[in-house]
Design brief:
The complex is a heterodimer of chains A (482) and B (292).
Chain A (H helix, E strand, L loop, with lengths): L3 H17 L8 H9 L6 E7 L5 H15 L2 E7 L1 H14 L6 E4 L4 H7 L6 H6 L3 H4 L4 H6 L2 E2 L2 E2 L2 E2 L6 E5 H4 L2 H11 L9 H15 L13 H14 L17 H13 L12 H9 L5 E4 L2 H6 L21 E4 L13 E4 L6 H12 L1 H7 L12 H4 L2 H4 L5 H14 L9 H17 L3 H19 L1 H12 L9
Parallel strand pairs in A: 1-2, 1-3
Antiparallel strand pairs in A: 3-10, 4-5, 6-10, 7-8, 7-9
Helix pairs in contact in A: 2-16, 10-11, 12-21, 21-22
Chain B lengths: L10 H28 L16 H8 L1 H31 L7 H13 L2 H11 L6 H10 L11 H29 L3 H9 L4 H29 L3 H6 L11 H11 L3 H25 L5
């Protein structure tokens, strides 16, 4: 018997078959790329891709399909995220030209572009007629994650954004609603501000702790919590720098308030939440032990059990909450576009045209729609059409709500801070957060972090960094309009 | 006999020259290259590779984080090294006499040393995990209530966790070397001392220790140098945190070189470490009498 999930898969398969069988007269960007790439039959291109689930896309799906269509081999170099920047820079500095195409985290783009490691893509976009389809990428990604200094250096290819996931069954349970009202005098509702979040989280923990359910749980390991700080700090009105002096302002009252709040909230979260990473937090939510969490889009899919029957996802805990999950924007309404990926071309590549055609094909409307629905990879919707695709909408019963929340998040999302030598600033924040969990004074931590940021800025050059910061801050996704 | 029958006297040098060249290439070249880089402005993020003079070396003396990392390294050495030595010696004494299954037990004891330190660190991180790790569970059984000890987060617990892992992994190395040394001590001397009424400590102090000292001092030196370079276990357990509280010299050099891409400054740190270690090792070799 065909159930709803099977129906979803059949729809996806039909969609794939239909698109792959598109007639030649339909001149999409994907078709144009395939046609132009056929002259490179027999060549091999190399692409750097994040190791793990992400790279199953080119190894299992897009790579073999590209070979079938063009006769070109795709060699995938799997690199851990933390090493990707180094590997790309090493290849560029050595001039080896070992990589043709690259996956680049958008926040790295200014550094890589300034160093000269990335090829400017504008001439290729024009040559191969990709401009119209670039316009259909969701505006936040298109306007913020594609260009440096007005030139295209990468195609946004992953709609990473934080969403809030909550237990609809708990929020709609009359017994819990009554207990919450009796306890707080307020109606139980999905929080829209951090003050509400604190009240709801603490209240639900009090009411449900005996059943082994906490009001909320977050990933707290510094690399993840850093994104959450960046998001919350700006939602509360914080600015990273004084735009005139380039003095760091993370130690403002807003910063201290956010840091203090983050640590205080651990009290109503599961014991040891300070050690939670992506997987620990996922397991807690999927096993029904937390009523709210914030994370990247795969949480929403896996909570519904989508794709978790695949071998590649056998490490994902079995969901106990399928059909019980609701989706919302995190408190403040402006979620972090945490990390993400863009497709770029290495400036030292010896196969620039061939590599470009591959990334145009990957990123195109047709092919990207299939890729974001692959159950085993982690690419998330990033084009207008992805949010309304009938195949995606049919993947599970409330996929419509999931896609609607993602679409809304894509419209209001906040960019990761992206400056020259961004990772130096981020490293300071990661250390600051680990000190926060260790119990140090929030104000003292942030004062020290701000002083370290100022030192980094001084070393890079205040005027130089000021120009880059001004460019970043002028982007629509840099700061919310409060 | 004709003079031409004598072989070319320089021929032997020609024979060994490829090997010497290779050794110089892989041993000396990186050192010289690093020295050159330490006097330049090389970072992975800038195109400027101009001559920097002593800038990087002057920066070393103003870098509080670097000197803190030396202190953190010293803490690990000062605590872990004596414990590994004493524990290794005690276990070696236990295994000195024949006993059933001795060889199997020795092999089992050696297992931690054959594990890659980064794997050992990752494994201990799991064991110390508050949610899934067994260590807190076992402590909880004894305590009679759940113990949510955050071994890799809590400032009071991070050093004990790191040092415990280090001791677990490397005490067997001390044990094996000291067992070999103890096995070679002339038993008749200790037996004679025993007959003369010497107690264990006296016979150890005046007979056993002098006999095993050359081997023991080498073991101390090797482990001391290893501990100075400690990286993997710390990186896997705490990545130098909380903050920079457990950041050792190697961790700091890695962060500067491969996270911050400060190639020239990292080269300067490397040369500072080489200079310090040369002084310390020379002093230690003299103190331990190994130069004789």
């Amino acid at each position: 018997m065909v159930n709803r999930r099977d129906f979803g898969k059949i729809s996806l398969a039909a969609g794939l078959a239909a698109t792959m069988g598109r007639p030649a007269w339909a001149a999409s960007a994907a078709d144009a790329a395939v046609k132009a790439a056929q002259q490179y039959k027999g060549r091999s291109i190399t692409i750097v891709w994040e190791a793990g689930l992400q790279s199953l896309d080119p190894t299992h799906f897009s790579g073999p399909k590209w070979k079938e269509l063009t006769g070109m081999d795709v060699k995938v170099i799997e690199v851990a995220t933390a090493e990707m920047f180094t590997k790309i820079m090493q290849d560029y500095k050595s001039g080896a030209g070992a990589y043709d195409a690259l996956n680049v985290i958008p926040a790295w783009m200014p550094d890589l572009a300034q160093a000269g490691a990335l090829e400017v893509l504008d001439p290729y976009v024009e040559k191969y007629g990709y401009a119209p389809e670039l316009q259909t990428i969701a505006s936040t990604f298109r306007d913020n994650q594609m260009k440096v200094g007005g030139k295209i250096y990468g195609f946004p290819d992953d709609g990473d954004v934080f969403l809030m996931y909550y237990r609809r069954d708990i929020f709609e349970d009359p017994t819990v609603q009554k207990a919450f009202k009796d306890k707080t005098g307020k109606d139980l509702a999905v929080p829209k501000t951090w003050a509400d979040f604190d009240a709801v989280g603490a209240g639900l923990t009090d009411i449900l702790k005996d059943k082994g359910i906490y009001g909320a749980a977050f990933f707290r390991q510094p690399p993840y919590a850093m994104y959450m700080f960046e998001e919350r700090f700006r939602n509360e009105g914080g600015k990273f720098f004084d735009a005139d002096t380039m003095k760091a302002t993370i130690n403002s009252d807003v910063g201290v308030k956010v840091f203090t709040g983050m640590r205080k909230e651990n009290r109503f979260m599961p014991p040891g939440v300070e050690q939670f990473g992506f997987v620990e937090n996922l397991a807690t939510f999927l096993q029904g032990q937390s009523a709210m969490t914030i994370s990247w889009p795969p949480y929403g899919r896996w909570a519904e059990g989508y794709g978790t029957d695949q071998e590649a996802l056998n490490w994902v805990p079995k969901t106990a909450i399928a059909g019980k999950v609701g989706y919302a924007l995190p408190p403040g309404g402006h979620p972090e576009l945490a990390a993400g990926f863009a497709l770029s071309i290495s400036s030292t590549s010896k196969n620039k045209d061939a590599a470009y055609l591959f990334i145009q094909w990957l990123n195109s409307e047709d092919v990207s729609r299939q890729r974001v629905q692959l159950p085993y990879t982690l690419r998330d919707p990033f084009r207008e059409s992805h949010y309304t695709d009938p195949g995606y909408l049919a993947l599970w019963p409330n996929a419509k709500d999931y896609l609607a929340a993602l679409k809304q998040a894509s419209e209001t999302g906040l960019l990761d801070l992206s400056l020259l030598q961004t990772d130096k600033y981020e490293e300071v924040m990661r250390q600051a957060i680990s000190k926060l969990w260790a119990g140090d004074d929030p104000k003292a931590i942030l004062n020290a972090a701000a002083a370290q940021w100022d030192d980094i800025t001084q070393k890079i050059g205040v005027e130089k960094q000021k120009v880059v910061y001004a460019g970043w801050a002028a982007k629509s996704g840099a700061y919310p309009k409060i | 006999m004709a003079a031409t029958a004598h072989p070319d006297r320089n021929f032997k040098y020609w024979l060994i020259s490829p090997a010497i060249f290779l050794l110089l290439l892989i041993g000396l070249f990186p050192l010289i290259f690093s020295l050159v880089v330490s006097f330049m402005h090389v970072t992975m993020l800038e195109t400027d590779t101009s001559f920097a003079g002593l800038v990087n070396f002057v920066q070393l003396f103003h870098d509080a984080r670097l000197w803190q990392s030396f202190v953190h390294t010293a803490i690990v050495i000062v605590i872990a090294l004596p414990i590994e030595l004493l524990l290794g010696l005690a276990i070696a004494y236990l295994f000195l006499d024949r006993m059933p299954g001795r060889q199997i037990l020795v092999s089992l004891l050696m297992l931690p040393t054959i594990i890659s330190p980064i794997v050992a660190g990752a494994t201990w991180r799991l064991l110390f995990d508050n949610r899934y790790g067994p260590i807190n569970q076992i402590i909880g059984w004894f305590a009679g209530h759940p113990v949510p000890a955050l071994w890799t987060v809590n400032p009071q617990l991070v050093y004990p966790a790191i040092i415990f892992c280090e001791i677990w992994q490397w005490t067997p190395f001390m044990f094996l070397i000291l067992l070999a040394a103890l096995s070679n001590v002339d038993r008749s001397l200790t037996e004679a001392a025993e007959i003369d009424g010497a107690r264990f400590w006296r016979s150890f102090r005046y007979i056993v220790l002098p006999a095993i000292w050359p081997v023991m001092s080498i073991a101390i030196l090797i482990r001391g140098l290893d501990l100075f370079r400690i990286f993997d276990i710390i990186w896997a357990l705490t990545a130098g945190g909380p903050g920079t509280m457990t950041e050792t010299v190697s961790v700091y050099a890695y962060v500067q070189g491969f996270r911050q891409f400060e190639s020239s400054y990292t080269a300067a740190i490397a040369f500072l470490v080489i200079a310090l270690l040369t002084v310390i090792v020379t002093w230690a070799i003299r103190r331990m009498g190994l130069a004789k």
